[in-house]
Each structure stands twice: as structure tokens, then as C-alpha cells.
Amino acid sequence: MSAFRCDEPTQWVKLFVTDPLDGQTVGRAYTVRNHPSPEPRIDIDVVLHGKGPAARWAEVASPGQEVSFSGPKGGFSRDPQAEFYLLAGDESAQPAVFTIAESLPPGMHGSVYLEVDGPQAEMEVTWTADLDVVWVHRAAGRPKGEALRDAVLEAPVPHQHVAAWVAGESGAVRDIRRHFTDVIGLDRRGAYAKGYWKLDEADHRDPLASD
């Protein structure tokens, strides 16, 4: 940890944990939510959705338990021409969205759409940029991602140079990606869209993700 550096938004590590169900070691990618340098510590948020091996591990993890990781990799590069940022994600993408929002400069305008189970899942957020936060509540029984997709497709976008970043359930992100290019008119350089996960599929890899 003494050599670890994480200086850019959305940087991630691959966390290697033991699945308590079958004892197998698996690796999963997670955004570094916070790196309180120079402390030898990183903060990682894990969604307890109850289906994946990493979620099962997190449910029974205890202080002092050893894990290993590789990285960090990735990172977010701000569009120097952007006048407005549209950010969106579900619980899996919330840490990455927060790191981007916190990195945007004072005076930057934008909107942040975050899908959660309900009002009880909202949290206080602070950043220096002028970003409006829209908490999108998921109706009971509705698949994750659909409420976020509908909200982003209806989101007002100003007649300015817009940059967008979205991640979450792959099917919902696919529709949002098409909206960014076909309706708003953004190109791939101005619209990052990645399916972090997919319903009923373990360890999903998005083949259409922006770099």
C-alpha cells in the first residue's frame, strides 16, 4: 500500500476475494471511492445484491480478513470544451459518478441522475461544481436500470457543449448510449457509456463500452 497511487476519478482495482459458497477465488473490478493519501488505505463500495460471488463475500467479510488486488487502472479525462456534464448511474456506478462530480471545477454546470431503491437510499452529496442531483427511485418489482434509462432519456440538455458519462445495467446503458449519439448528437469522445453488469449474467463484459 505504501506504493499505491490513485489520483484520477473512476480509477479501479481488481479485487480478488474468496467466494464463501464454493471456496473459489474470483476477481472483480471496483472503483476506488476514496484514497485518503498518505494513509495506507483505500475505500471501496460493494453492492450487496446477493447474487454474485463478490457480494456473497462482502456479506460475511470481517475486519482483519486478507484480500489481494491489482491496479489501479483506468481513469477519467475531462473534456476541456465541455460546458455541461450529464452523469448517470445505478448503485454499481455510484462511486465512479461521485469521483467525477467531485473532480469537476467550480462553475461547471450539469445534472447527475442516480437510481436507488427509494428515498431511504439517498445520501447527502457535496461538490464545488454546479450540478443538480436527481434521485431516481426504482418501483417495487421493476428491473434495475429501467427507471434510470427513462429518466436520462427525458433529461433536458442545454444547447451547449455537452459531455456525458453513464454506467450501470448493460441493457439500460445500451439504450442510453443510442440516445446520446442519435438524439443528443454526441460522438464517442463526448459520451462514455459502459454496462458494468447485466441482468442474469455473471461477470459481464460490455463489448460496446467506450474506452
Detailed description of the structure:
With 211 residues, the chain is an alpha/beta fold. It has four helices and eight strands, in the order E-E-H-E-E-H-E-E-H-E-H-E. The chain has helices at residues 53-60, 94-103, 146-153, 170-184, and strands at residues 12-18, 25-31, 68-73, 84-89, 109-116, 130-137, 162-169, 191-197. Strands 6-5-4-7-8 form a five-stranded parallel beta sheet, with helices on both faces. Helix 3 packs parallel to helix 4 (170-184). The longest helix has 15 residues, at 170-184. It is globular, with a radius of gyration of 17 Å. 33% of the residues are buried. The mean pLDDT is 90.
Describe this protein with a few key phrases.
alpha/beta, globular, 3-stranded antiparallel beta sheet, 4 helices, about 210 residues, 5-stranded parallel beta sheet
